[in-house]
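Q: Given only this backbone (163 positions), what sequence would you predict?
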């Protein structure tokens, strides 16, 4: 599955990315896929911490390295939505809001990442969300992460550059 390109908007704190796609699964399965560390590690990256209201999380660091992103869950309404701060190393904190809605054919997920300044979030999120779709479908990821990110990056550079 190829994820639809996002809406990219200028925002007072940088940019806002809005991805919205339907995944062929029920809301509870998709919620588990995006909030359970064991499942997140299958399509995104490993996490430590507690993905519940007030919980903090960090991207699991490789041996000897520090985590490259941390956050705090500031709102949570399982299995419908969560809001988290997103603080990547060397960047200003941003906001991530994910909402799920049951629709015909599966569950619509809307991911809104606000306050980003790096254009690399666009290709990164699309690559991760394509991997999520493969995970939900029980399929192997069709692309190696770095190769897909590199393939998508020029499109995102052009889109961000046109704003």
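A: Predicted residues:
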């Amino acid at each position: 599955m190829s994820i639809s390109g996002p809406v990219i908007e200028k925002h007072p704190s940088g940019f806002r990315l809005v991805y919205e796609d339907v995944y062929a699964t029920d809301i509870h399965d998709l919620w588990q896929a995006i909030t359970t560390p064991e499942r997140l590690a299958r399509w995104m990256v490993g996490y430590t911490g507690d993905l519940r209201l007030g919980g903090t999380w960090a991207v699991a660091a490789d041996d000897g390295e520090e985590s490259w992103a941390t956050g705090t869950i500031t709102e949570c309404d399982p299995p419908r939505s969560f809001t988290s701060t997103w603080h990547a190393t060397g960047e200003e904190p941003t906001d991530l809001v994910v909402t799920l809605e049951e629709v015909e054919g599966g569950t619509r997920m809307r991911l809104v990442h606000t306050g980003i300044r790096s254009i690399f979030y666009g290709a990164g999120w699309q690559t991760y969300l394509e991997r999520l779709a493969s995970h939900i479908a029980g399929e192997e990821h069709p692309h190696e992460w770095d190769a897909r990110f590199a393939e998508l990056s020029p499109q995102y550079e052009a889109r961000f550059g046109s704003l």
